[in-house]
Design brief:
Oligomer: heterodimer
Number of domains of chain A: 1
Helix content of chain B: 55-70%
CATH class of chain A: Alpha Beta
Strand content of chain A: 15-25%
Number of helices of chain A: 8
Largest interface: A-B, 31 and 34 residues
Largest sheet of chain A: 6 strands, mixed
Structural class of chain B: alpha+beta
CATH superfamily of chain A: P-loop containing nucleotide triphosphate hydrolases
Strand order of the largest sheet of chain A: 6-7-8-3-9-10
Shape of chain A: globular
CATH topology of chain A: Rossmann fold
Order of helices and strands of chain A: EEEHEEHEHHHEHEHEEH
Number of strands of chain B: 25
Helix content of chain A: 25-40%
Structural class of chain A: alpha/beta
Chain lengths: 248, 936
């Protein structure tokens, strides 16, 4: 650990590589990525398919382990953590939003939202939970099961679930990938609000230029490396950058 | 399609193996049973045919019917020997006395192992003898020869002086020799003592009599010819058989006895296969649902509905055939193992070389296994045909429910009611044994099927209730945990200890220590030392392995009620699946509960009847269920302090023109002193005292079935062919102890001479100090009759209870097979559910569920399913038991709820749930979060 992580960074990666398989069949998904996400930042990760953007997110979130390099979340080096400690770290510091919502079908919206807190066996901060549910606009859908909700509503449940434990950082994996464009817009607006209003740190993997345009920072990955790192951009700029990156 | 089927099986190995196991166990039992039956029967046939080799013709008392209860005809007059000799073509003639009795060593009657009889057969010379002396020689006066097993077991050798229990008391004898019988040391574990003919006559009250007569033919005379010649000279109450006929009859008698065991084993095999059906059905239902994409894809590639159906059926059939073949293999091993087991526990059944009856132990189980696999997979296969090609393209396509689906619970209710009705009907109809039992079995199958459909409705409420209890327990434990953690110093320590107790390696250490302790307690020998080292090595490896495994899970997360909630919801989200899974367990538990209710009811009614009716202070019975020498009654009566000693004889007799019932012989002058009659229709003890040889007292059931009233007359025929014309003198009620009818004992002794000895003697004491001494005095006085087992009423009842409990345990062991199969079913369903919920598990792990919590969810789910099965099984078992008890209440059976045993069954069900979860939970916990999340 020669490079010192920025002390204020919520997530920081140093020289992270990830290799799948061995020998001739080995694939290098990441080839040395270093980055810091500071508190309150909304970062979008873009890149053509196979660029390693999903792998990067998985490693930053502690779902996967790097082949070399180190990752810290909220000041904890997660590279050598046991499965148990990693689970507890995820439980307390990390929130997830998935493309396919991944709600438990037999629980109501509210039960799904409170699930991580219940798993932690913590007493639930009702005011915060109510505020979150209110914020995502599900106050009148608390008792509904996922099958009774629309795709957008299900994703709102997932967002509320991710926020309920006040994670240090929230990872969103193609959060609009499974939604129509108008619903996508609403979800993106909601995510933006979370960042602006509560200072929620967020890392979003997407290939939707409109989604990336909502972020404070857009990272472009190609062949397992960060090839571009720019600030807040218009959708058209993002598209242009993507075209440029893909052409590399 | 064949290729698809084979690949399908191969691709899901664990599932295939688990499903196949449910067939393997059932078919193995069928195969094993038939092999064992043939082995035993062949062996007996060999022995009897070998034993009759030198005998051309056998004379015995003609019998009027065959008795299932061991009633035998009386002896022949000795003069038959001389008469037979006058027949043409006779070479040699010899009589043989056959009685029961055994050696007495240090005042103790030597019983045979496994309840086999203690026989006394007088010596016969060549060519009739079937014994080969391995030491000493034939008996002479006051000497006896004994069979090899008896000699070995009691360490007796030629020249030893021992005592022999006879009808005339204990007599001193000397061992003249030790022999093998038709090449074996013992026939089925029986002891055999061989005195001379004259001694046997004297000792066993057969002076001037002979039990059987053996004849050999002169050169050139065939046994059949000799038989004809002998028939011409002897009276027609003598049964004349050739040696071959006699051997055949002996063989078929034994086959009759072993067929009972065969039927019991087959019934349990059937139950095992039936439980297996549920497991196959459930597995195929779940996999068809999981493979919809595959079927849709096959359809888009041009497979017809019929081909899809065939591929599922073919897969099931392949599995069924392979599983049956494995089962047949196991069955052969099982037969060999059972043989060894019987030998180990002392039931020395002779066995011929292993022969495998192709039809019964290969084709039948193969058919049963294949049939079970096909029957259980038809519905899932039909379901597979309903998958439209479009399902291949759509995420999360679900099949529309079948047309019948909404009605299934109602069909279930109807089925359960019908099944229960059939059982009640069968019980009420009574009559022929096997038909009633088969009807009842059919009723039970219908009821179980109905119940499993109906239970869909019950899953959600029961799971809800169990989940609520579980949640409460978890909440309380969390609350207590929080309090504990607040206690300074001691709190963390207690936490450590409690945590330790939940860990595998702590238990592994404890168990290892216990095994080590018991190994070493046997004293330090080379063998135990090796044992200790092995135990230490295995235990140490286990502890190390588990320690490492668990260490990764630190720190411990607080127990959270959420695991309980998730488990409850998981069992409720697919009620059909949970219903079928728990139904498999339900059947096993229901059968066990039914057996428990039935046997306990039988026991209670028997013991209750003793308490109600027997007013004596002591009960004397014979050793090994044999009768008691008649002089015991007088010997006991003469003991100071004894007020009354009254014997009861039991004999089967043919009533009127049909039906066989028990005739009880009692002493009219004394019997009411030891037995309290429950008189009907104005009867009283006075009636008993005025019972003449032409009178009978009849039991209520007997009166009903033969439509008799006091004053009516009826005929009975004894096994010897003697007839009695009796007048009904009175009617009483005792459906447990004195069924049938009562006649004076002196009449019975003449009527059925083979049953002249009492089966039981009841003894009552005087009031006062003499009576108090009587118990010891009587034991002392009857020392000369060690064949009589003298017990107080309490001892007798405890004996009876032990016997019944032993029977119960035997049945439990057999029924455990059903439970094990249902355990496999739970494992299978859980494993498939885990597989199905891979993505969900990934999500749960991603949002912070630890491996421990995940395992806990699956364990709770399994436990809830198992407890549902247990509860339903107990309910169904109680209902069955109640119906049967109601149906048989007029025969004295009472309905007893064995509460403590029911609690035990529920605990076993819970343990099964925990056990079943181990493998699936481990699999789920091992899933890689990332791969699980991306799983399609």
């Amino acid at each position: 650990m020669n490079a010192t992580a920025t002390p204020t960074a919520v997530v920081s990666a140093r020289d992270v590589t990830r290799r799948y398989g061995e020998g001739d069949a080995a694939v290098d998904a990441l080839r040395g990525v270093t980055l810091d996400i500071v508190p309150g930042q909304f970062a979008a990760v873009m890149g053509p398919s196979g660029s390693g953007k999903s792998t990067l997110m998985h490693i930053l979130a502690g779902l996967d382990k790097p082949t070399s390099g180190t990752v810290e979340i909220a000041g904890t080096d997660i590279t050598d953590l046991s499965d148990s400690r990693l689970t507890l770290l995820r439980r307390h510091q990390v929130g997830f939003i998935f493309q396919f919502f991944n709600l438990l079908p037999m629980l109501t919206a509210e039960e799904n939202i409170l699930l991580p807190l219940r798993l932690a066996g913590e007493s639930i901060d009702r005011t915060w939970a109510d505020a979150v549910i209110d914020q995502v606009g599900l106050s009148d859908r608390r008792k509904h099961r996922p099958s009774e909700l629309s795709g957008g509503q299900q994703q709102r449940v997932a967002i509320a679930r991710a926020l309920a434990s006040r994670p240090a950082v929230l990872f969103a994996d193609e959060p609009t990938g499974n939604l129509d464009s108008s619903t996508s817009g609403e979800i993106l607006k909601l995510l933006r609000e979370m960042v602006t209003q509560y200072g929620q740190t967020m890392v979003m993997v997407t290939h939707d230029a409109n989604a990336a345009a909502m972020a404070d920072r857009v990272l472009f990955l190609a062949d397992g490396q960060i090839v571009r790192d720019q600030g807040r951009s218009e959708a058209s700029d993002v598209l242009a950058a993507m075209a440029e990156v893909s052409a590399l | 399609m064949m290729q698809v089927a084979i690949r399908g099986l191969w691709g899901r190995k664990l599932r295939t193996v688990l499903t196949a196991l449910s067939i393997v166990l059932g078919t193995a039992m069928i195969t094993g049973t038939f092999i064992l039956r043939d082995q035993i029967n062949n062996a007996f046939s060999d022995i009897f045919h070998e034993g009759n080799k030198g005998i051309d013709v056998v004379l015995s008392k003609q019998t009027a019917f065959t008795s299932d209860n061991g009633t035998v005809a009386g002896p022949l007059p000795e003069s038959v020997i001389a008469t037979a000799k006058t027949a043409d073509g006779v070479d040699k003639v010899e009589g043989q006395i056959q009685a029961t009795g055994s050696i007495v060593i240090d005042g103790k009657y030597v019983t045979s192992s496994g309840g086999a009889p203690n026989l006394v057969f007088s010596y016969v010379t060549e060519p009739f003898s079937n014994s080969q002396f391995i030491a000493g020689g034939p008996p002479t006066d006051n000497k006896v020869a004994i069979n090899q097993k008896l000699a070995n077991d009691e360490h007796l050798k030629t020249g030893d002086r021992v005592k022999l229990a006879t009808d005339a008391g204990v007599v001193p004898v000397t061992i003249s020799g030790v022999f093998k019988l038709a090449g074996v040391s013992s026939i089925g574990g029986a002891t055999l003592v061989v005195p001379t003919f004259a001694d046997a006559q004297r000792w066993y009250d057969r002076v001037g009599k002979t039990s059987v007569v053996y004849l050999s033919a002169q050169q050139g005379v065939s046994p059949a010819e000799l038989k004809q010649n002998v028939e011409a000279v002897v009276s027609n109450d003598v049964k004349v058989q050739t040696g071959q006929e006699n051997a055949d009859q002996q063989t078929s008698d034994v086959e009759g006895a072993t067929s009972f065991l065969t039927y019991i084993l087959l019934a349990f095999a059937g139950a095992a296969v039936f439980v297996g059906l549920f497991i196959i059905f459930n597995t195929y239902s779940i996999t068809v649902a999981q493979r919809m994409r595959e079927f849709a894809m096959l359809r888009t590639l041009g497979a017809s509905r019929r081909q899809v159906m065939r591929s599922v059926l073919l897969e099931a059939a392949l599995m069924g055939v392979v599983a049956s073949l494995i089962g047949i293999g196991f069955g052969i091993l099982l037969a060999i193992g059972l043989n060894a087991l019987f030998k180990a526990v002392g039931v020395d059944l002779p066995t011929a070389a292993l022969s495998i009856p192709i039809v019964w132990s290969v084709l039948l189980p193969l058919g049963v296994g294949l049939g079970a696999a096909l029957v259980a997979s038809v519905a899932p296969a039909v379901k597979a045909t309903r998958v439209p090609p479009i399902a291949a393209l759509r995420e999360g396509f679900t099949l529309p429910r079948g047309v019948l689906a909404p009605y299934i619970p109602y069909i279930g209710i109807a089925g359960a009611a019908l099944g229960v009705g059939v059982i009640a009907f069968a019980i009420r109809a009574g009559g022929g044994g096997s038909r009633v039992l088969l009807t009842m079995a059919a009723g039970a199958i219908i009821a179980f099927l109905g119940m499993s459909m109906l239970s869909q409705l019950l899953i959600v409420p029961i799971a809800g209730a169990l989940g609520a209890v579980l949640e409460l327990v978890l909440r309380v434990s969390r609350f207590l945990g929080r309090i504990r953690d607040r206690i300074p110093v001691l709190g963390p320590l207690v936490r450590r200890v409690m945590y330790g107790l939940t860990l595998g390696y702590v238990w592994a250490a404890i168990i290892t220590a216990l095994i080590l302790f018991s190994v070493l307690r046997g004293g330090v020998k080379a063998g135990t030392l090796i044992g200790a080292v092995v135990v230490l090595a295995i235990g140490g490896a286990l502890i190390y392995f588990l320690w490492r495994r668990r260490l990764r899970e630190w720190p411990w997360d607080a127990s959270s009620p959420t695991a309980g909630v998730l488990a409850r919801e998981n069992t409720s989200r697919n009620p059909n699946r949970t219903a079928v899974t728990s139904a498999a367990l339900m059947i096993g538990v229901a059968l066990i509960v039914f057996v428990a209710v039935f046997v306990n009811g039988f026991k209670e009614s028997f013991l209750g009847a003793i308490d109600r009716s027997i007013t004596s202070d002591m009960i004397i019975q014979g050793q090994s269920f044999q009768s008691i020498p008649a002089p015991v009654v007088n010997a006991a009566a003469k003991v100071p302090g004894v007020a009354t000693a009254s014997g009861i004889q039991f004999a089967d007799a043919k009533i009127g023109n049909g039906g066989i019932d028990t005739v009880n012989g009692v002493d009219p002058t004394t019997f009411s002193n030891v037995y309290r009659f429950d008189w009907l229709k104005g009867g009283s003890n006075q009636l008993l005292r005025t019972l003449t040889p032409d009178d009978a007292l009849i039991e209520e059931q007997f009166a009903k079935s033969h439509d008799l009233n006091p004053g009516d007359t009826f005929n009975i025929t004894s096994i010897d062919g003697n007839k009695l014309h009796l007048t009904v003198h009175g009617e009483y009620k005792d459906p447990s102890l004195m069924t049938g009818l009562i006649i004076p004992s002196s009449t019975l002794a003449k009527f059925s001479p083979g049953s002249k000895d009492p089966g039981i003697v009841l003894v009552s004491f005087d009031q006062g100090p003499a009576g108090a001494q009587a118990e010891r005095a009587i034991r002392q006085a009857l020392k000369s009759f060690p064949a009589a087992k003298v017990q107080t009423n309490a001892e007798y009842k405890r004996d009876a209870e032990d016997f019944v409990n032993g029977l119960l345990q035997f049945l439990y062991v057999l029924l455990a097979m059903c439970l094990i199969i249902s355990l496999i079913g739970i494992v299978n369903t859980l494993a498939l559910s885990v597989f199905e919920r891979t993505r969900e598990i990934g999500m749960l792990r991603a949002v912070g569920m630890t491996r421990r919590q995940l395992r806990r969810v699956i364990r709770y789910e399994s436990t809830i399913t198992a407890i549902i099965g247990g509860i339903l099984g107990i309910v169904v078992g109680l209902v069955f038991g109640w119906i049967v008890a109601q149906g048989l209440s007029d025969q004295g059976l009472i309905f007893v709820v064995p509460y403590s045993q029911l609690v035990g069954f529920l605990i076993v069900a819970t343990l099964f749930g925990i056990l079943a979860a181990i493998l699936p939970a481990r699999r789920a916990a091992k899933l890689n979060v990332l791969e699980a999340l991306q799983y399609e």
